[in-house]
Amino acid sequence: MKIILKKQIFWVLVCLAGLSFSFGMADDTRYSTNVIGIPNFLPDPPYVNGSILVQAKSNSDGTIQTLSDINAAIGAEVTRDYGTVGISGLSLIALPDTISVPDAIRYYSGNPAVAYAEPDYYVRALKTPDDPQFWRQWGLSNTGTPFKENTSPGLSGADISALHGWNETTATHGTIIAVLDTGVDIGHPDLAKNLWSSSESGTILHGINILEDKPVEPWDDYGHGTHCAGVIGMIGNNGEGGTGVAWNTTIMPIKVLNYFGNGKLSDLAFGMAYATMHDASVISCSFGVEYSRVMEDIIRQSPALFVCSAGNNEVDLNRYPQYPACYNLSNVIAVVATDAQDHLSDFSNYGNRTVHVGAPGSDIYSTIPSRYSYTPLFEDPTFSEGNFTLTGNWTRNPGTMPGEPVSLQGVLPEDLFHDTYSIEMNKTVLIPDDTGKIPYLVWDIKGDFWGSLVIEYSNGVVNWTTLWDYTAYFEEDDWRQLFIPWNSWYSDPSYKVRFSFQPFNGVIKNDFSIRNIMIGYRGEVTKPEYGYMSGTSMAAPMVSGMAGLIKGIVPDLTAEEVKQVIMDTTDPLPSLQERTITGGRVNLSAALKSLKKDDIIPLYPGWNHVSVPRQLKEGYDTAQIFASVNSSGHSVLVYVNNSTGYKTLSMNDPVVPLQGYWVYSTSTMAVPVRLSDQIKPFSREIQAGWSSVGGWMETDISAKETFHSLMNTWSYATGYDAVVQQYEEPIIRGGTGNQSDERPIQPYHGYWLYCSQNGTYQTGFG
After folding, report:
1. SS3 readout for 251-309
2. Are residues 488 and 211 in contact, defined by beta-carbon separation less than 8 angstroms?
3. Is residue 171 within 8 Å of residue 746, measured between CB atoms?
4. How many Cα atoms within 13 Å fall on the side-chain side of residue 693?
5. CA separation for the pair 5, 40 (Å, rounded)
6. Average of pLDDT values for 630-653?
7. Helices (H), strands (E): how many in the chain?
């Protein structure tokens, strides 16, 4: 579904069409524009009335000056203290009605205890309008063949060389990538296993929802964040959908934008600080905002790499900067979008002094919010008269399949002129406040429609209050499930809902339909969803995934060093010359290969189960390779067999392929290894029972391929995640889902392997 927005405010709606998932930045002539001709997506003024951000100065001894007297003098109060996420002295201040934002800025800025004060700017998600097959993902592998229905073929090689890059690694090995966006579809089967989690609030959460005043999951009620997260880290080689740049990674969803795709600087700043405090090494930023000293300071103080989309207004950021892309900081990398022909995408901003690299951003295929079952608090699939009042020319259509609900079809006459079609719920629905869950307003929609859609709610006392209000062009060929959360800031205990459609004359004459209106709690995934989007919002997470893989190979690299690796290994493109600093599109293979001056065994604090993928060079093939490891007195161990158990290695004992070794380290480090220049066959006799083994390739290959020589004798393979010091979910021969034997055996990692009888384990495909 395409959406064309007409209001000044940047209300961007999740809308879907067939296999595509389209976001609404289409025809710029429909937008209002500002003095430099850039579409005006934000309110005027572009900041929140009634609050500002204030940074207090530090005293000479490092303590923060107090602002309580300054606040009290005008009746202001602190509503958020950023010291809780490591930003001392920064506060979000609620202003009294008697003082405007500009006057408050002047008041605070004139006080010697204040370093600076600035508005709480609105933030906008950056994307432009617009499966489970890998062939659709031209940005990862462009073969010069069609990648989307009714679309011209791409240019062979116009991609980030992911296939060759994955020969080096497909995993970020504990590196955390934060996605500051509209949240993530937590239950999506192609993302769930790659999501970060925390139990600091007493319940397990997969990120943080900063828009809520209680700890709840950062569900994506818009779609933008889920798509960006999938570009970074859709689970690879799992038989589900597509794959991300990083097959195995840790994505931290941080919801700072709402179900219109916009938000506030104060939430964004808190999200950046939260990601930094919780050890995110890469922070993916597919949004834009006015210049902010608060945001600049937070980024400058963070050790993370901020990967920022350049924006989609077709302007030169040298002249018309937007942020965070245009901060001149060593840990910021800004990204333009390229298309399947290796051209600069027609919507993309650019800047040869402000934007660093290009990455695929047009027609990018990724995850979008899944369809879910719901436990209803209210539903009426027949739209009975007792529960609904209908106004307008509606036709009631029964479902064509058994169990399919009734739908309401709005019939648009040729002489239509601002007629209103409404669906009003008569029944008030009680919303329990003690479940700890957020209920949702859910509905299905399809059809062609150009006009205004307003969704309102009422508690029976106060009449109708607007929940959604937008002007949009729908182009939806099949039913699509949309939803809005009943957020915690709705304090009343019960509600009813009204949908009002007002079509515009002379634009679209087709029908539209709605069904399955309900209020309820989210259940299980009934259909994983995927689709295409375009924008620099898609290009930035492409680079974020790359940064995570780079950091996973060499954990000690700083943000500035990771940025330099990415910039130094781009492919020059004529279309990006004089449009970016490097003049090139990123190349994953070149970036990862540039790190391989020495092969390494990555070690993390605690026990590590490691191996070598092939024979080591003579003279560098003993346990002496671990001599530099601070083991805190622990020995290097090798598991011999079921009866002998573990053996302690001396420094002169050989380290050989196909064998797993246990090494203890007090810190994160990389152990250099020198592989033999000749690749020779190698085999090992495996006894029935458990054995400690390693793979025999320098790249990830499936367990099925790795253990093919053992045929049907092997049953389980279990890796050990040294980052979190716990065993991974087992790989099962013939298994499905995340236990599938298509899961990769990673180089330099050890595995416990269970065999039902003796066998010969050997290298090569035989």
Report:
1. EEEEECECCCCEEEHHHHHHHHHHHHHCCEEEEEECEEECCCHHHHHHHHHCCCEEEEE
2. no
3. yes
4. 29
5. 11
6. 91
7. 10, 42
- Going 328 to 332 to 336 to 340, the CA torsion angle's sign is positive
Tokens linked to 722:
């040294």
Do residues 300 and 329 touch, judged by C-beta distance below 8 A?
A: yes
Give residue-wise pLDDT tens across range 645-695: 899 999 999 999 999 999 999 999 989 888 886 777 889 999 999 999 999
Instruction: Write the pLDDT tens digit of every residue in 735-763.
Output: 988 889 989 999 999 999 999 999 999 98
Here the tokens at position 295 are 């945001």
Q: What is the CA radius of gyration of the chain?
A: 28
The length of the chain in residues reads: 766
**Confidence at residue 410, expressed as pLDDT on a 0 to 100 scale:** 83
What's the N-to-C CA distance of the chain in angstroms? 50
Question: What is the spatial distance between Cα 273 and Cα 286, in angstroms, rounded to a whole number?
Answer: 17
Say what angle helices 293-301 and 265-277 make with each other, to 10 degrees: 10
- Alpha-carbon gap, residue 600 to 578, rounded angstroms: 38
Tokens of 232: 């970074």
The tally of CA atoms less than 13 A away on the side-chain side of residue 325 is 37
**Sign for the pseudo-dihedral over CA of 378, 381, 382, 388:** positive
In whole angstroms, give the CA distance from residue 264 to residue 267: 6
CB 245 within 8 A of CB 105: no
Cα 92 to Cα 53, 84, 140, 268, 288, distances in angstroms: 5, 12, 42, 12, 20
Mean local confidence (pLDDT), 271-297: 94
Q: pTM, whole model, 2 decimals?
A: 0.68
- Residues taking part in catalysis: 181, 224, 537
